[in-house]
Design brief:
- The complex is a heterodimer of chains A (about 270) and B (about 260).
- Chain A contains nine helices and no strands.
- Chain A is mainly alpha-helical and about 270 residues long.
- Chain A has one domain.
- In chain A, helix 2 crosses helix 6 and helix 6 packs across helix 8.
- In chain B, helix 4 crosses helix 5 and helix 5 runs parallel beside helix 6.
- The N and C termini of chain B lie far apart (about 55 Å).
- Chain B is globular and about 55 Å long.
- In chain B, the strands form two sheets. Chain B has a six-stranded mixed beta sheet, sandwiched between helices. A four-stranded antiparallel beta sheet of chain B has the order 2-1-4-5, covered by helices on one side.
- Chain B has about 260 residues and is an alpha/beta fold.
- Chain B has nine helices and ten strands.
- Chain B has two domains: about 160 residues, P-loop containing nucleotide triphosphate hydrolases (Rossmann fold, 3-Layer(aba) Sandwich); about 55 residues, no CATH class.
- In chain B, a hairpin with a 2-residue loop joins strand 4 and strand 5.
- The chains are: A mainly alpha (about 270), B alpha/beta (about 260).
- At the A-B interface, helix 4 and helix 5 of A face helix 2 of B.
Chain lengths: ~270, ~260
């Protein structure tokens, strides 16, 4: 009892002192280390015998197909809006002919992959987090384990792999739809054939615009999958934990997407100059 | 090697008595300062239904979760079907788990799967079985719990009693030698609870299974138990048949039966 009072008083003291940021820092580093060890476990299980092909295909379909309309609409709007916003400025400088190339490069290098990843973090990441958390709190994961099935391999590996496979596909799709949206935008102010527009877009798009942008989408997919599954697989506190898992999956995955994007830009610039 | 791959369980037989399906020796488990299981010793004979009684929070569910290693015990020896659970690898544990059925309190049905898919799930790794064999096993399991017509329904469409029966069918489909029931009749009306209790008894007689049944339902205990143990403060404090414990000297033990 005395020990208990001592801890309570320590807690009270620490709540009133500047130790609070350090406590948050401690829990932050703890979370980072747990996510890292969860990621290592993912790779360990990924290369073990007995890959769950049918479940991976099912999850790929869910992630890819379910996000397709949202990605298509957003990609189209981004292409259209970017064109409409840039056109007056470029016209003032007499550089209107550069519009397709500028929009194309912007979409392929940055906007397409990042917007697609953010949409999927919101839609698929939260879905994965909520689904696994719900399975966790209703003992479905325990039931899977006692039936002799490896739940990590069946639930986590399949979803992360599906996410890594589908985000690049969706990003390419978003780029294509975005370029089409840009074509519509350009035609609102003038008249240009689709063939000439495409030629102008790809005249300025280089290998180093496409390749790094495509590669980083695999990392975006990994971040979305691993955070969603980590949060869901380790959910606690009943239904409250389900909501928390879904929410924190989106927040952390979105943050990671920007961090990965920043790192990708730095690494790409090293090879570009 | 993959945990799902079938491997032969090596002969790490540590049991001194082949009559026992389960032997628990000096089992201890704590959660921080909370000592849930202090020193539990008990055995389950082959073909026996052992009912575990005790107040809520007395560690009954922790006991059976320790048996299948969902919770790792702090100390003690767990011997199941002659295998020391703490001495076997993960692959061997998974093979052993297929011989142990576990009926969760909430039935723990897979929400995203139909009744058929729920039952087929434990059969995924049975490479020797053809699709027709699996179909027959599913139909047989559903028939044994009286749920043949629900085969294409989702778990959300089933009543509480039906969910428990489906959970039992999923447990039975691998024809386990040992079944662990975690409060099988909790949350059910008395009539359905009695049906479930009779079903547990029927399973024991038909399949010659050994079972540990955690329950607060005295009707369930009376119907299913060959033997009863009573838990208090992390220890087994009483053991006997229903009639013996009903007339026990200890008023605390007797209070369960009143």
């Amino acid at each position: 009892m005395a020990r208990h009072n001592l801890y309570d008083s320590e807690d009270e003291i620490s709540e009133k002192t500047p130790k609070i940021p350090f406590r948050h820092l401690k829990s932050f580093f703890l979370e980072v280390s747990l996510i890292t060890s969860f990621s290592f476990e993912f790779f360990r299980q990924l290369f073990r015998k007995g890959f769950e092909f049918s479940e991976t295909a099912k999850q790929s379909y869910k992630i890819g197909y379910n996000s397709l309309p949202l990605v298509a609409i957003t990609g189209f709007i981004m292409g259209l809006v970017l064109t409409m916003q840039s056109q007056p400025t470029l016209k003032n400088f007499g550089a209107e002919a550069w519009l397709p190339a500028m929009v194309g490069v912007s979409l392929i290098r940055e906007i397409g992959p990042v917007i697609t990843a953010l949409i999927c973090a919101g839609k698929s990441g939260s879905g994965i987090g909520a689904e696994l958390a719900s399975m966790k709190v209703t003992e479905q994961i325990d039931a899977m384990e006692v039936s002799g099935t490896n739940p990590f391999k069946y639930l986590v590996v399949t979803r992360v792999v599906a996410s890594m496979l589908m985000i690049p596909v969706l990003a390419v799709f978003a780029d294509a739809i975005g370029i089409f949206g840009s074509y519509i935008g350009v035609n609102l102010y003038g008249d240009i054939s689709f063939r000439l527009f495409i030629v102008q877009v790809f005249e300025k798009v280089e290998f180093m615009d496409i390749f790094p942008a495509f590669i980083k989408t695999f990392f975006f997919g990994f971040a979305i999958g691993i955070i969603g599954t980590y949060k869901g697989y380790n959910a606690e506190n009943g239904t409250e934990g389900v909501g928390y898992s879904a929410n924190s999956s989106v927040v952390i995955a979105s943050l990671l997407i920007f961090i990965i994007d920043l790192m990708a830009v730095q690494i790409t610039s090293l090879f570009s100059y | 090697m993959d945990r799902n791959t079938e491997v032969a369980v090596p002969e790490k037989r540590t049991s001194v008595n082949d009559d026992f399906a389960v032997e628990i020796q000096h089992l201890k488990k704590s959660f921080g300062d909370l000592h849930v299981l202090k020193d539990v010793n008990l055995t389950v004979r082959k073909g026996e239904n052992l009912v575990v009684l005790g107040k809520s929070g007395s560690g009954k569910s922790v006991l059976i979760k320790c048996l299948v290693q969902l919770i790792e015990p702090d100390e003690g020896k767990l011997v199941i079907l002659g295998n020391d659970v703490s001495a076997i690898s993960n692959d061997e544990l998974n093979v052993l788990r297929k011989k142990i059925g576990f009926l969760f309190q909430s039935a723990a049905l897979y929400d995203s799967m139909t009744v058929r898919e729920n039952l087929e799930f434990p059969l995924r790794d049975q490479k020797k079985l053809s699709a027709q064999d699996k179909e027959n096993l599913v139909l047989e399991a559903l028939k044994s719990v009286g749920l043949s017509k629900a085969i294409d329904k989702m778990p959300a469409e089933l009543s509480g009693g039906m969910r428990k029966r489906l959970g039992l069918a999923r447990t039975l489909i691998l024809k386990p030698e040992i079944i662990l029931y975690d409060e099988p009749t909790t949350g059910l009306d008395p009539v359905t609870a009695k049906d479930i209790s009779k079903l547990i008894l029927e399973v024991q007689k038909k399949n010659k299974t050994s079972s540990i049944i955690i329950t607060h339902d005295m009707q369930c205990a009376r119907i299913t138990a060959n033997r009863i143990v009573v838990f208090k403060d992390g220890y087994c404090v009483a053991e006997g048949t229903y009639n013996e414990l009903e007339n026990a000297d200890d008023p605390w033990v007797r209070s369960f039966f009143q």
